[in-house]
Write a structure and sequence with these properties.
Helix content is 55%, strand content 3%. By secondary structure, the chain is mainly alpha-helical. The radius of gyration is 22 Å and the shape is globular.
Length: 377
């Protein structure tokens, strides 16, 4: 018998060489490269390559890799039709989950069974390429607008913002900010959505099913949905001088504050300072420093009162808000970034897989009872 660990806390269920989350030291690395170093020296496409190939690309490899992803941006017409027909007030995470699932219907390569996983690697990159197009398309269509022409000369961050802005080119600052946000969200150990993806693929289901599971898991407010919760909270508080009173009420009622705390990091989440820097710059540029000042005060009070630190979602919310991205697309952007990690983890699982099958600590009756006839219950 093994020990019971609620929420599998502390349980090691598989091996992975992809990302190392060192909770005690507040350190995150991908394949042995510190996240600070990667943010400083690499673009998001290099991160996708790193996660999928286990090494950083040379210049030529990067060019070839970018070409491959950019050529795969077009959605099947059936998915486009769905995105046009989907309810205009749907949760974009539900739309994304459904659309990624639909992609599998149009891909003849879908069944697992290629021992070298070449096909699955291609499907993984195809999902990475198409996810931003799905999110931007739905956002345009729900406003009754067309999607601008898909281009192959823009990187992931620039192309997504270009589509969202109706064909207008984003500023270099906006592109760089989103590129860093994508890099920081790409992979993160055995988080809940990655675990879902690995559980699904370990049954030898298929790549689309596994990513669909992951999107459904990311949606929740305790995981990817927290970034939307942060903006709702800032809007609810409204002014800097209301922060303390608001937090006291929340603490007294034992309610969670979105964007704070972490299952693994018990010190500062190493992704947070990068996003904080961009949040400060962008809000200053916009002349809307109120949001960042309120955020700083929330982080300060929660550190002092509860010993809790800001996590990745805390500042990403202000960053996306400052980029003019609607709140309900914050979590889909997290999903866009995490597709690189999910698909790399799915491939890693397939290379050395064992079905996940934990046990339950049964708490029901142990004495067996006869089933009474329905009119006697
Ligand atoms: N606001 C207020 N209190 C919090 C808190 C938060 N965001 N996060 C944790 N706590 C409190 C818990 O209530 C608990 O208090 P208690 O000991 O008095 O019961 C204590 O801190 C320990 O937290 P716990 O719930 O055991 O942490 P966890 O590892 O299970 O949960 C999270 C981790 C991420 C689910 C949790 O911190 C949370 O819900 N955060 C808000 C959502 C969020 O930002 N998610 C994104 C994560 S990247």
């Amino acid at each position: 018998m093994t020990e019971y660990s609620k929420g599998l806390e502390g349980v090691i269920a598989n091996e992975s060489a992809l990302s190392n989350v060192e909770g005690k030291d507040g350190r995150l690395s991908y394949l042995g490269y510190h996240i600070d170093d990667l943010v400083e020296n690499c673009c998001y496409e290099e991160i996708i390559y790193l996660l999928h190939n286990g090494k950083l690309p040379t210049q030529n490899e990067l060019v070839e890799f970018e070409r491959k992803i950019r050529e795969d941006r077009t959605l099947p017409q059936g998915v486009v039709d769905f995105l046009k027909a989907a309810p205009k007030d749907a949760n974009p995470m539900d739309v994304l989950r459904t659309a990624v699932s639909m992609l599998g219907l149009y891909d003849p390569r879908v069944a697992i069974g290629d021992p070298d996983l070449v096909k699955d690697e291609d499907i993984g990159l195809s999902i990475v390429a198409k996810t931003p197009i799905i999110v931007a398309s739905y956002h345009r269509f729900r406003q009754g607008l067309e999607l601008p022409e898909i281009r192959e000369d823009l990187n992931e961050a620039a192309h997504f913002l270009y589509l969202m802005n109706g064909g207008e080119m984003p500023t270099d600052r906006a592109i760089r900010t989103l590129d860093v946000a994508l890099t920081l969200h790409a992979d993160h150990g055995m988080n809940a959505s990655t675990f879902s993806a690995r559980v699904t693929i370990a049954t030898l289901s298929d790549m689309y099913s596994a990513v669909t599971s992951a999107i459904g898991t990311l949606k929740g407010p305790l995981h990817g949905g927290a970034n939307e919760g942060v903006i709702h909270m800032l809007q609810e508080i409204g002014e800097l001088d209301k922060v303390d009173e608001y937090l006291e009420g929340k603490i007294a009622r034992k309610e969670k504050i979105m964007g704070l705390g972490h299952r693994v990091y018990k010190v500062l989440d190493p992704r947070a300072p990068h996003l904080r820097k961009f949040a400060v710059q962008l809000t200053e540029e916009l002349g809307e420093t109120k949001w960042i000042k309120m955020s700083e005060r929330i982080a300060e009070v929660m550190r002092e009162r509860k010993g809790l630190n800001a996590n990745v979602d805390f500042y990403s919310a202000t960053v996306y808000y400052s980029l003019g991205i609607p709140t309900d697309l914050f979590t889909p952007i997290f999903a866009i970034a995490r597709t690189s990690g999910w698909t790399a983890q799915i491939l890693e699982q397939l290379r050395d897989s064992r079905l996940y099958r934990p046990m339950t600590l049964y708490t029901g009756p142990t004495e067996l009872m006869p089933v009474p006839p329905i009119d006697k219950r």
